[in-house]
Amino acid sequence: MTIFRKIFILFCISVVIMFFLSNKTNEIQNQKIELIYKDKYIESSKEFLNLLANGDFVNLDKKAKELNYEKKKIELIKNTKVVYDHKISFGEVRIIKKNDTYLLYLEYLGDKVLFYDATQNNEVSQKAKLNYLIVADIMLLIIIFLVFLRILTPLKNISKAIEKFGEGDYSFRLRENKNNDEISKVVKKFNAMAENIENLITSRSQLLRDISHELRTPIAKAVISLEMLGEGKYNNILKKSINQIDKLTNDLLEIERLNSNNLVLDIKKYSIETILAESLSKMIIEDEEEIVIEIVEIFECYVDINYMSTAVKNLIDNALKYKTKGKVEIIVDKACLEIKNIGNPLSKDIDYYMETFIQEDNSRSTEGYGLGLSIVKRILERHELELKYNYIDNKNIFIIKFLNN
């Protein structure tokens, strides 16, 4: 769950609780006020009824003034709520509620009076102040929520920037503002860091490309010179070493192209037979009988045939290079390409061998896995595919599951 959702949920809960508490407080306060004035009016009505029954309106008004009661017009009883009603002989005592205030209505032998306790004005004022404070508190919660939103927005942008940067978009930068708060400082530091990293990566890539291109000329001259010297034991060793250097140079350039953000794959629909044929055409196989191909079910998939055939070629090369005996088996079935060889199992997870220049710790050979599996990994990642590995019946099995939809 994101921070924004957490804060939004907390804000909603706070507002709901605030409304609930305010309604509950009003309800309790109204019940308390109603009970107070109900008792007070009932007590006053006894004396008022005696004066009203005697027709002593002068003393009735005088008594009402002593109790701080105000006389109101009878018409005010319209559209009111009755909270107490007591019938007596020839009359009635009624307590009514109108707009959060309580009034006392008395009737005897047709004479009607309506009194209002003026002390309620203070209660109404206090209640209004409490309601204003509750509204102010809710408004404060809204303001705090908006402030948090303003704080979270740049944090959200920073999160997106880090995600883009992690995906390889090293040119992405955050927009800086004129504020001098902690968030603005983080934005400036991120942009400075991104600038440095982009420069380092660009410099490294340029250096590798330059070295690779510069090596091509002396390698080509060395190959020509060896051809002119003819055959010989040491000439063959030297030729093999130069070929390995040439392959390494090509692999370095291939790695840089695969790591580049500007690389666009030419994705088209191909049959697995076409991909396999292209892969084998890129290989120099001394003995074709070392490879056995079994096609159980042909399928089609969307790939860049140049890069995918390179990945398959590297897997076949490794299978040939590290087999201990027998033949390399290539099996095509159910949108899967399996490459098998008899050999020692990998001592570590497959991901370990997909790093550059990895070699078994206990290997007697001076040749490691080089860039072959690293290139395979990057090509498959570009196609959103994955290389699986199993070891069954003394056989190393490398599996590519294609998306044939």
Key words describing this protein structure:
405 residues; alpha+beta; five-stranded antiparallel beta sheet; five-stranded mixed beta sheet; 9 helices; 56% helix
Notes on the protein architecture:
This protein is α+β, with helices and mostly antiparallel strands and 405 residues long. The chain is built from nine helices and twelve strands. A hairpin with a 2-residue loop joins strand 4 (101-108) and strand 5 (111-117). Helix 3 packs parallel to helix 4 (182-229) and helix 4 (182-229) packs antiparallel against helix 5. The protein is rod-shaped, with a radius of gyration of 45 Å.
What's the β-strand tally? 12
Judged by helices, strands and strand pairing, the structural class is alpha+beta
**Terminal Cα span:** 33 Å
Helix content: 55-70%
Write down the overall geometry.
rod-shaped
> Approximately what portion of the residues adopt beta-strand conformation?
15-25%
Rg, Å, rounded:
45 Å
In order across it, which strands form the biggest sheet? Answer: 1-5-4-3-2
Tell me the major beta sheet.
5 strands, antiparallel
Order of helix and strand elements from N to C terminus: HHEEEEEHHHEHEEHEEHHEE
Uncertain stretches: 361-369
What's the average pLDDT? 81
Number of helices: 9
